[in-house]
Automatic annotation (TrEMBL):
One Pfam family of this chain: Glyco_hydro_1
Family under the similarity heading: Belongs to the glycosyl hydrolase 1 family.
SUPFAM superfamilies cross-referenced by the UniProt entry: (Trans)glycosidases
Species this protein is from: Candidatus Sungbacteria bacterium RIFCSPHIGHO2_02_FULL_51_29
Organism domain of life: Bacteria
Gene3D superfamilies reported for this sequence: Glycosidases
Protein name: Beta-glucosidase
GO molecular function: beta-glucosidase activity
UniProt region (Disordered), positions on chain: 36-61
Length: 418
């Protein structure tokens, strides 16, 4: 592997950046925005960080609305990515735009995404396309969404349509984004649509997502044998709190539930592992976060070494690995440059120790709509002024650019000599 074939870039998802989406999430936002704004009174969110965006105490923070208007401004955004030295970009297709009514495919929307991937290609940027990054078309929500095993066939049909249309311009396909984050928050904790709290539903939806991935994998490989197909899987490094022997069991359970259960189930149905890394945990009955002095604006512990520790655990799958997300909310851009630098340091060490890592995508290219937390968390390499839609490149984005320019992955690659 050399620096030319290592993919460097950033990721986004349709609902979080496009604006004007009409799906189960946009409906849920309208119905829940007041409640979320009220609940924010009890949260320890840093209010001063919401300058230039709605405050977490305001209803407008929780309604995705125009978001970043990326649907119409994608060319401008890809010019920025190109200028920042990116040679790859991860985006998602919005199912509710492509199939707004059951079985009715919107050729204009498909044409739009064709333009999007071609705009990337024209800039020498490799598209990594996610087929489902959480929102559902309303008609599918009304049929029971992922809880209904029969609905898997609709996903398969949508995938067939999308891959047939975009296949000539796309090699890398990600069928599902973070399936277990979705099942846990939507069906176990009941905090996201459709707000269920049922272990049975959680298991059922997880099982249907496994089935959906496997079938989609088959369809994509049939249509496009040379494609590369995987999922983007959110995994954490777990360490057992030594204070009690039971914690060893809890660690095993946590790893199975969050990291390896889903991955093992689809092990023969993926060409690569897409790894989204954000956090590590010390496992005791509280699943405490790893103790570090550094936290993000959202209170997440920053633990760069965890990416290395997990990558060494993933070697056993003998598949190429892409870091499909890694990032932090940092409105003042005080920690982002160091965060990226340290994660890449550990990533290189993992490669030197034999992990076959082939790409890194920072989350996110743009500030965007962070689901039930709304607009205030600022993840972007590029800041968005939500009133004017003005884009401003953060200093950390330029540091990431210089890291990309200086990185010589030949020197760290297992075959390149350490
Ligand atoms: O914004 C999300 C993204 O949609 C999925 N992965 C984690 C990110 C930060 O929470």
């Amino acid at each position: 592997m050399n620096n030319e074939s290592f993919y460097w870039g950033a990721a986004t998802s349709s609902h979080q950046v496009e604006g004007n989406n009409h799906n189960d999430w946009s409906e849920w936002e309208k119905a829940n925005a007041d409640r979320l704004a009220n609940d924010a009174q009890k949260r320890q969110w840093p209010r001063h960080l919401s300058e230039g965006s709605p405050s977490p105490l305001e209803r407008s923070n929780y309604v995705s609305g125009r978001a970043c208007e990326h649907y119409t401004r994608f060319s401008e955004d890809f010019d920025i990515a190109k200028n920042l030295g990116h040679n790859a970009h991860r985006l998602s297709l919005e199912w509710s735009r492509i199939e707004p009514e059951e079985g009715v495919f919107n050729e204009e929307a498909i044409g739009h995404y064709r333009e999007v991937v071609q705009a990337l290609r024209a800039r020498g940027i490799e598209p990594f396309v996610t087929l489902w990054h959480w929102p559902l078309p309303l008609w599918l929500r009304d049929k029971g969404g992922w809880k209904n095993a029969d609905n898997v066939r609709y996903f398969v049909r949508y995938v067939e349509k999308a891959v047939s249309a975009l296949g000539p311009d796309v090699t890398f396909w990600i069928t599902l984004n973070e399936p277990l984050v979705y099942t846990k928050i939507s069906y176990l904790e009941g905090r996201w649509p459709p707000q269920e709290k049922s272990y049975i539903s959680y298991l059922r939806v997880s099982r249907n997502l496994i089935k959906a991935h496997k079938k989609a994998f088959g369809v994509i490989k049939r249509l496009q044998p040379a494609s590369q197909v995987g999922i983007a899987h959110n995994m954490s490094f777990f360490e057992a709190d030594k204070s009690h022997v039971i914690n060893g069991f809890l660690k095993w359970f946590g790893e199975w539930r969050k990291n390896f259960g889903f991955l093992n189930a689809i092990a023969d149905y993926q060409d690569f592992i897409g790894f989204n890394y954000y956090s590590s945990y010390v496992v005791n009955l509280n699943f405490d976060k790893v103790k570090t002095e550094q936290t993000t604006d959202m209170g997440w512990a920053i633990y760069p070494k965890g990416i290395y520790l997990m990558l060494t655990r993933l070697k056993k799958y003998r598949k190429p690995i892409y870091i499909t997300e890694n990032g932090l909310a940092d409105a003042k851009d005080e920690k982002r440059a160091q965060f990226i630098d340290e994660h890449i340091f550990w990533l290189k060490k993992a490669i030197a120790d034999g992990a076959d890592v082939r790409g890194y995508f920072y989350w996110s290219l743009l500030d965007n709509f962070e689901w039930s937390d709304g607009f205030w968390p600022r993840f972007g390499l590029v800041a968005i002024d939500y009133l004017t839609q003005e884009r401003s490149i953060r200093p950390s984005a330029l540091i990431y650019k210089s890291i990309i320019e200086k990185a010589d992955m030949r020197r760290v690659g297992p075959e390149g000599g350490k």
